[in-house]
Design goal:
InterPro entries: Glyas_Bleomycin-R_OHBP_Dase, Glyas_Fos-R_dOase_dom, VOC_core. The chain is of the alpha/beta class. It has 3 helices and 8 strands, in the order E-H-E-H-E-E-E-H-E-E-E. A hairpin with a 2-residue loop joins strand 3 and strand 4.
Length: about 120
């Protein structure tokens, strides 16, 4: 084979129909992602897109929504302890997980119950 996988383009997470403002409040206002305008042909489907650097998170809406409690994106962070403190001060519940050797990591849930991992590898 001559093709090569380069990088992940985006992560799609689901949310209930009509929850775009809750997504903005969490991903934009708390986590600090920038909202990205969806292409016109996709905007009619609902949902909202976010970006921070090369990390793209798309929130799609579903009628029969069920949160992803095990499947999750994992986002590498610099200064993870500062992020943890900020999230705690922002009333976001942080669940520390020390089971991965060499990683400082924790999980949060978005407003819809989707799990998100943040981690920083020891150098």
């Amino acid at each position: 084979m001559s093709f090569l996988y380069e990088t992940v383009d985006h992560v799609q997470l689901a949310a209930p129909v009509g929850s775009e403002e809750s997504a903005r409040n969490f991903y934009r206002d708390v986590l600090g992602f920038e909202e990205v305008e969806k292409p016109e042909k996709l905007a009619k489907n609902g949902g909202v897109w976010f970006q921070s650097g090369t990390i793209h998170i798309h929130i799609g809406v579903e009628e029969s929504f069920v949160p992803a409690q095990k499947a999750h994106p994992a986002i590498r962070v610099k200064n993870i302890e500062e992020l943890k403190q900020y999230l705690n001060e922002s009333s976001v519940t942080v669940k520390v997980d020390e089971r991965l050797p060499g990683a400082n990591r924790f999980y949060v849930s978005d407003p819809f119950g989707n799990r998100i991992e943040f981690l920083e590898w020891a150098t």
